[in-house]
Fold this sequence. Notes:
four-stranded parallel sheet, 9 helices, five-stranded antiparallel sheet, alpha+beta, globular
Amino acid sequence: MTEPKIGVVGIPGKWSTEALADAIEARTGFRLVIDMGRVVLDLASGALLYEGTDLSKLDGLVIKKISETYSPHVLDRLEMLRHAEARGVKVFSRPEAVLRLIDRLACTVSLAAAGIPMPQTRITEDEAAALQAAKAFGTAIFKPLYSTKARGMILISGDDAEAPARIAAYAAEHPVMYIQQKVDLSGQDLGMVFLGGAYMCTYARISQSDSWNTTIHSGGKYASFEPEPGLIEMAHRAQAPFGLDFTTVDVALTAQGPIVFEVSAFGGFRGVKEGCGLDAPAALTEHVLGRVSA
C-alpha cells in the first residue's frame, strides 16, 4: 500500500507551515507546501493546479494558514479548496468550517447561539450608536471583522472628547463596526487547544508590557496552565459547533467568570510547543493520517 499524498496549505517559509510539512513528510515521504496565491482552478477540466500538481488528485490537504492576513478575499481561496473537497480530497479542517471563522462576526454569532459567555459586544454601522456603545462600555475595543493577533484593533474611551472623530475615521475604513467592552485580563489569557474535537492542552499568553492585549504579536509570552474541568467543558462547547480538526479557543478569566473571545480557524502550534511542551504538528499529522486512511 502506497503512502497517502497530503499537501499543506500555508505560507511557505513560515515556521508553523514548514513544521507541519516536515511532520507529514516524515510519516509519508511526500512534501508539498501550497501558496494559495499561485493556485489555478480550471473548472473546465476540474483541475486545481499548483506548480504542476493537481491538488484535486491528492489524498488530503491540511489548511495551516490560508493567507498572511485576513480579508474577504480569503473566502475565495476557501471556495477553491471546497472544489478539491467536492472531487474527493479530504481537507482538514473542512473549508466550510473555516469559512464560518474567518469573519469575526460569523464566529461571534455562532458562539452566542451556543450560549457561550463573551464580553459585551455590539455591532453597528451607525456612528452615533457606536459612540453610545463606547460610553456604555467605558472603554471599547473596535475590532476589524477580518484580522488576527489584534491587528487593526483600537481602544476608544466613551468620555474622550475625540471619540466621535475617532469613530468616524474608523467607520470610514470599517463600515460595519464590531465593538466589544474592554475587560481586565489581569495580564494573561488562555489558549485552550482541541484536536479532532478532543481536549489537548491549555497554554497561557502572559503580557510582558503595558499593552492592553497579551498577544505574542504585542510581546506576550507563552506559559503552562492547568485549567479546571469546568473551564475545559466551556471551551469544548465553544469549539463544538464549528467541527474543526485543530483549533484554539481564546479564553479570559475575569472577576465575573470566564469568557470566550473567539475560536481560531487554524489554531497555534507555537503556543502548544512553548506552553504545553507538546508537538502539535506531529499530533495533527497522526489525526489526519487516521482520517485519510479510514
